[in-house]
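dude i think i finally got it to work??
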Amino acid sequence: MKKVAIASVGVSGFNPTTPDVSYRELTYEAAVKAYNEAGIEPKDIDGFVVAAEDFCEGYSISDEYCPDQLGAVLKPVCTVPGDYLHALATAVMMIRTGVFKTVVVEGHSKLSNMKNHWSLLGFAMDPVLDRRLGESYRIIDGLEMARYLHETGTTEEQCASVVVKFRKAALKNPLASYGAVLEIEDVIRSDPIAYPLKALDVAHPIDGAIVTVLAAEDVIGDLTDKPVWIAGISWYSDSPSFETRELGYSPATRLAAKKAYQMAGIANPKGQIDLFEISDETSYKALIHAEELGLCRRGEAGFLFETGEFGPDGAVKINPSGGELGVGDLFEAKGGHKLYEVVKQLRGEAGSVQVEGATTGLVHAWRGAPSTSCVVAILKV
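look at this
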């Protein structure tokens, strides 16, 4: 089976609002950066994969509007209605077939186009059973957070410590929009959303685009002398039914991690992986994901974040970039941001947030309520 590596990643935007450009212009800017870094032209690329779900573009079937800005006119293009890492997995499989040698992955966010993206996403909830809970799907987050805290003994203060650590770390990241020095009480006293979830427990939206160039092992040397290998990648989806799934867990993350670890030869993730960029759309969800990735037992993550064992500067390096809470929520492209951060880390190019000596990193994405789809990728140099 062909090995697949990342040749380059280009990013643009990463601001709460980008009124001067459209999402297509953001994508074009990121694509130019990625192509220039890899020394490749669109005509030499075999295929393109885009992650999009028509939420923020302003029209339906938005994938039909992606070829121009990528240089993909009259090229094989497909769209994945999921996270950026779902599109990455699709591109990896395309290359492994042997039919494609180079594939580009694109994802973007233009949440500033949306007056209230929480309400719009509420249409993803079951119209008969769940949508009547309220106009925001954050109702589900609040219910899940309450159950997780109750069952594990985790405290609101421990969840708040996640916010404090990630937003402080983001102050060192030039891409971050929400770096801040906060106290636990600032988080606890922030406006309530759905008890016990509060405003500062939730990542705030940003606009941006990410474009990645992937290549097969027999051509990667033509594009870069710093390949980052995709050693393992897996994804799982749980039931979208709020009534039947187990709140306070993420079995899709657990299963995706198990498969990705197996593919990458990882038996001890804490000992073999140098940094973890995990989904932290909400503070409590970061704790659940750390547990489901096998970094600790259920109910222990809150204490480990609170005491500093876990975190950007901890013995277990989690979200040194500042995560979604510090950088911002890129919606469908959030996995692309995490991919970019780990690639920079493994190349020793992460600047002030660099984890010294990093050779292996984990990238994790969760689709967000009411979805339960999760992707885990292991990157190595």
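The CA atoms of residues 46 and 300 lie 46 Å apart.
im so relieved honestly
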